[in-house]
Amino acid sequence: MNKTVEAIKSVRSDATAGPTDYDTILDRYFGTASESQSASITRRQRESMIKLAAVALSAALNAAEPRRLGSGVATQLIPVGTVAASQSASDEQATAWKLREQLGNILRNALWEDFRDGMPSQFAHDLRTLVLDFGTAAVTELQRFIAARPIRPGLGFEALTALATFNYPSIASDRRRLIEWALTSPSSEIRYGAALALVSLGDPMAVQPLEAAISSERIPDLRHALQKVLQAIKEK
After folding, report:
1. For 33, which of 37, 111, 163, 175 could close a Cys bridge (C-beta 3.0–4.6 Å)?
2. H helices then E strands: how many in the chain?
3. According to the model, what pLDDT value does residue 138 have?
4. CB atoms within 10 A of CB 168
5. Could you state, in order of their start, the residue ranges of all structural domains in the chain?
6. How many CA atoms lie within 13 A of 236 on its CB side?
7. At residue 142, does pLDDT exceed 90?
């Protein structure tokens, strides 16, 4: 397996040749949301505010006149299930926004980091912490970000290969889905990162996506690397 990894690493420079300027595109994480996204966010926030206002009104009425109103009035105003559901929805929304904010900060901080093969990176450390804090949601949010806008290829490569080293069963399914999706990236370096990640994982479920990637790969050296990954997985 180590020989396979080294063989794949040797084609990286050929597969990623060509100047591309990605250094100025990550100015603000999700800072240029579309009008439809903004409208959707507004509706969700409005619904959450209405539910929370209803909860607050019920609590205020009970606190102001507890004897006259009684506990039954609050129950009639807002069913217990509705209160619990609104609180749960608000908590989930707050968690999602916190995840996006932290991921955005991590990616911004990594914009100018110099990634080197075989050397630990601050970005990989921060990504591991994010996964530990938020679980598999961090992986799906990372994929959402990469799909929403282009990123520096070296950063995508580092994200994929770092994720492959995280030995957390809870993220296995979403991680595999992200890596398989990355095999179709327009960036050759990200496709290469996906290949190297699959070498580390050795997941037999990746055989079919790899075969599809090999058939569509136009860069000979990268296609050869993908074939080596496929062979290594089948022999494992």
Report:
1. 37
2. 12, 0
3. 95
4. 14
5. 1-26+111-236, 27-95
6. 19
7. yes
Q: Which of 107, 192, 109, 116 is nearest to 157 (CA)?
A: 192
Supply 83's token pair: 């209160």
Q: How far apart are CA 53 and CA 221, in angstroms?
A: 60
How many whole angstroms separate alpha carbon 235 and alpha carbon 32? Answer: 46
Contact predicate 153/190, CB 8 Å: yes
Report pLDDT for 98: 94
Structure tokens of 202?
């050795």
Q: How far apart (Å, rounded) are the C-alpha atoms in residues 96 and 134?
A: 9
Report the alpha-carbon distance of residue 163 to residue 165 in Å, rounded: 5
pLDDT of residue 56: 47
Q: Which two tokens stand for residue 221?
A: 């050296």
Look up tokens 């609050």; give the residue: 74
Distances (CA, A) of 34 to 40, 46, 91, 227: 10, 18, 25, 39
- Average the pLDDT over 115-131 and give the result: 91
CA 152/CA 55 separation, integer angstroms: 46
The mean pLDDT of the chain is: 73
Tokens standing for 10?
Answer: 């040797």
Paired tokens of 223? 């296609």
In the chain, % of residues over pLDDT 70: 62
Query: Residue 73 contacts by C-beta under 8 Å, 6 or more apart in sequence?
Result: 61, 62
Termini Cα distance of the chain:
9
pLDDT of residue 13: 43
Nearest Cα neighbor of 83 from 62, 102, 107 is 62
